[in-house]
Amino acid sequence: MSDSTPTPETGPTPTPGIHHVTCIAGDPQRNLEFWVETLGLRLVKRSINQDDPGTYHFFFADAEGTPGTSMTFFPWSDLSSGTVGTGQVSRTAFRVPSGSLDFWEARFDDHGVEYDDRIERFGETVLPFWDPDGLPVELVEVDVPEDDPTVPWTAFVPESAAIRGFHSVTLWLADPEPTGELLRTMGLEERGSEASPGDASGDERTRFSAAGPVGKHVDVVPTVESGRQGHGTVHHVAFRTPTDEDQASMRRAVQSAGLRPTRQIDRHWFRSVYVREFGGVLFELATSGPGYTSDEPLAELGERLVLPGEFEDRRGEIEDALPDVTVPRPELADAD
Q: pLDDT tens-digit profile of 1-58?
């Protein structure tokens, strides 16, 4: 066995859970208004898609951009609407404090947000809803511990109801078994299965859980429902590999499992490795650092367009190509 092959004794370092989820949106202004003003997440980074610099990349998170809290978007306005199906993240769920779903239903009524009846899943209460592009999202009530690492942002939503990072993602897969084995390789443990009403097939939902406090669950559901990427779908889900060493050991592990991960790519606020898992979902392995405050003070996160690396030399060209947007602010909302 070569030195680069993981063994039970040498690796990989288990992932603590989800780092971020990246989705596809349509109109960038509408995307900003919904995720900041309606859902109360903070815009912690306003940047560009580094593979398509004519497109914004928005990062919404808790007050400090804590790993495990950031939902990010590529607003590709020229794409059509997508369809959620097999080989995709079908739902992204966020944690909210116990007892806050009454607040959220009233808020959704006030803001015209489409939502469904609450359901019970693995002993927790879940409120399904959709963003303006049709992206399926959920809020899950949890008891937030006093030592929770997330920091609620309270500009639009009170602390008693504020989103506290990810709860889980749901994967729709034609054959869940190989993905389940991969999740075990990544350090998640199977926690059990139950009926999955509302999913494409109605078959059982199986939960895998990491050991971290935020974004620890991955649910897999079998389905042959066809899908298409576009507005309202998830582009990829990133898992935390906090250090370069953790990431390298995980990369070796997924490669030994028969997958083809990319080399490490510098994404400025974290370093990334990408791999298409067995069921077709794009996974990312992302380091914790250097973080969103590496190029902006905490108090000024999201205030300006940040252009990483070599893109700064093209600022004029890039700014001219991007549509003007206004970040929602509480004082402006109050004035309305």
A: 334 444 445 679 999 999 999 999 999 999 999 999 999 999 999 999 999 999 999 9
Per-residue DSSP letters for 105-166?
A: HHHHHHHT--B---EEETTEEEEEEE-TT--EEEEEEE---TT-S-----SSS-TTT---SE
Burial level of 268, CB count in 10 A (0-12/13-18/19+)? Answer: middle
Residues 209 and 189: their CA atoms lie apart, in Å, by: 5
Q: Which two tokens stand for residue 220?
A: 């897999």
Report CA-CA distances (Å) from 283 to 150, 175, 239, 290. Answer: 23, 17, 7, 20
What is the C-alpha separation between 71 and 24, in angstroms, rounded? 11
Q: What domains can be seen in the chain, in order of their start residue?
A: 18-335 (3.10.180.10)
Residue 238 pairs with which residues in a beta bridge? 20, 284
pLDDT tens string 150-186 = 999 999 999 999 999 999 999 999 999 999 999 999 9
* CB distance 17 to 239 below 8 Å: yes
Report the run of H or E that residue 280 belongs to, with start and end: none
φ, ψ (nearest 5 deg) of residue 329: -130, 145
Residue 184: in which H helix or E strand, if any? helix 176-185
| Residue 206 three-state SS | strand
- C-alpha distances (whole Å) from 142 to each of 124, 160, 193 are 7, 12, 19
